[in-house]
Prior knowledge:
The chain has 6 helices and 16 strands. It has helices at 2-45, 209-236, 239-248, 252-263, 269-275, 280-307, and strands at residues 55-61, 65-68, 71-74, 86-88, 93-98, 102-106, 111-118, 121-135, 144-147, 152-155, 158-165, 168-175, 178-181, 186-189, 193-198, 201-205.
Amino acid sequence: MKKSSKKKFDDKKINKDKKKLTKSKKKFVVIGVVLVVIVASVLFLFSGEEKLKAAYLTGLSGDVKIITENGESNAKNGQELFLGDSISTQNGRADVVLLGRAIVSLEPNTEVKISSLLEDNIEIKQNSGSTWNKFLGLVGANSFKVQTPDAVASVRGTEFGVDVNANSSIALVSDGVVNFGTDNKTFDLKELEKAGVINKKLVRLNLTEEDIRKILLRKTQTIRNLKSIREEQIKNLGPLITFARKTYGLTDKDIQEKLNAIDRGELDDEKLIEKAPFKKDDLRRIKRINDEIKKTQNEIKRIKEVTNQER
Length: 311
């Protein structure tokens, strides 16, 4: 009888322990489900950003036209552009951003056409006028080309200008290497080098003081354009920025001050990225733009030192 009572007691204890274990498992499962829901909600919240425009206009001033297969229209700042669109500045100016990786600045009386928007090949056709081109060479973009009526400039991460007139196409390089020339002959132009196809003949040209002033002016403009692209990238983070504002009490002024400190080299953006709980890939894209801004600032200082240009 004693053994039987003890067995019943043990069975009751085992059943009780099983019930506790079952409740514990259920509780664990419920917590797990809640965590999954929370994580899914966060991922949903931060995956709802707008898709970046493949190409768009910025820095618009004066009379600028967009020419498409449907006709001609007045350009608008922030306007989305598409493959085959042409931009004619007439008496105005405009900057064209392509895939967030190339910036084409158009001077007055300039016309360009977007001829390729492939991830690994960005290309424009410049029919007339003057452009200044900055190719960032970010991940996913391998080359950038500017084709004129009588020459081609091909680059992989550089900054250069192209002038097209009735009988000539001239390339001026401020950074990196540009392969420039005709179908029959090309030059690899390096920093502060210049060449032209004049009356269908490829020749090297001497750099002038006016060229140096132009390079410094365009590099300053490039910094402004890079900051504009960075703003677009930050806007694309959408809910993440809203979350940061609410969670940490950040204002637009606070964010801008942080960016200015990064540009001055006073704040390490890599450390900020490491602390971020998610969206590191998006933040690294912004970091690459930060790096380009600092690089361009240093290039301006170096060119001034090399050429003794104080202004």
